[in-house]
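Per your request, structure below.
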């Protein structure tokens, strides 16, 4: 029997196809100032992902909260999720670079096109909105629908679905990211883990891009634009090949790999102890008639 998660994903694909056709015909009538704004990206995420989920749940007469892994994340988990996300950035960059050899990276181009917006607006549109909407849909509702499955299969399928939605430009990056977020949510039993990791990765790229752009502008201002242009024209032409860039990121991945392994093992160990404590206190609470045992778990 087909899982409700797979059925919803098929529904989502059909919905997005129809939505893309409608957008194609409606977009010429929309004001240019709106189409070129960050609000267009925010609204697009809501209409393309959150609205079909709302329609699906309305048809099934279900509540979204019933499918969300809603345990508190805790401070230790928050620190571990951010640290793991940071050390995984070169790996995600490597996958993105490899995919870019075959298909242009639209996400990288989007950062360049949005440089005229404030960093806060960019964070809202490119980090906060995708993190919340995509995690609720994929690591929230879809992931919760595969009861009884071996989890590595659930994670792989979740990554595959996530890659399809982001294809063709970000399919490889999205697959790996989807698998990692799936495991984070699975071990913590909290959708907040996926949201935090997703937000951090997107936000870091935005801040890094804006920081590099600021340094470039400062260099042009203090060195002098004419001197800079003269130096640039006199310098020998040299372009870093794609393979050289990939090799450079690959070396950084090797440097970061031990940190990823150590942090990931600590993350799993912490959450196994946390879940053991939760299960014990759940049993005790059910026997004594006390309230939610989650409130009594000390995660400090």
């Amino acid at each position: 029997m087909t899982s409700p998660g797979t059925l919803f994903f098929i529904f989502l694909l059909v919905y997005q196809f129809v939505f893309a056709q409608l957008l194609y015909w409606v977009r010429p009538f929309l004001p240019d100032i709106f189409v070129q704004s960050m609000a267009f990206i925010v609204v697009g995420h809501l209409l393309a992902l959150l609205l079909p989920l709302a329609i699906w749940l309305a048809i099934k007469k279900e509540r979204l909260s019933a499918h969300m892994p809603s345990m508190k994340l805790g401070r230790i988990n928050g620190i571990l999720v951010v640290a793991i996300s940071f050390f995984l950035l070169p790996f995600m960059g490597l996958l993105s670079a490899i995919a870019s050899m075959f298909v242009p990276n639209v996400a990288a181009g989007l950062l360049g096109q949005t440089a005229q917006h404030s960093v806060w607006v960019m964070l809202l549109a490119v980090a906060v909105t995708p993190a919340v909407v995509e995690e609720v849909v994929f690591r929230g509702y879809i992931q919760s629908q595969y009861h009884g499955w071996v989890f590595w299969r659930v994670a792989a399928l979740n990554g595959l679905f996530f890659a399809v939605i982001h294809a063709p430009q970000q399919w490889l990056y999205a697959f790996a990211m989807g698998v990692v977020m799936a495991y984070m949510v699975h071990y913590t039993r909290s959708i907040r883990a996926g949201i935090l990791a997703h937000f951090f990765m997107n936000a870091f790229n935005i801040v890094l891009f804006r920081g590099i752009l600021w340094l470039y502008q400062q260099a042009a201002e203090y060195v002098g634009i004419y001197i800079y242009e003269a130096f640039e024209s006199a310098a020998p032409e040299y372009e870093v090949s794609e393979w050289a860039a990939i090799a450079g990121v690959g070396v950084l991945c090797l440097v970061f790999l031990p940190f990823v392994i150590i942090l990931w093992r600590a993350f799993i160990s912490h959450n196994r102890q946390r879940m053991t404590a939760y299960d014990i206190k759940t049993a005790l609470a059910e026997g004594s008639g006390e309230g939610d045992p989650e409130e009594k778990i000390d995660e400090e």
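DSSP finds eleven helices and no strands in the chain.

Regards,
D.
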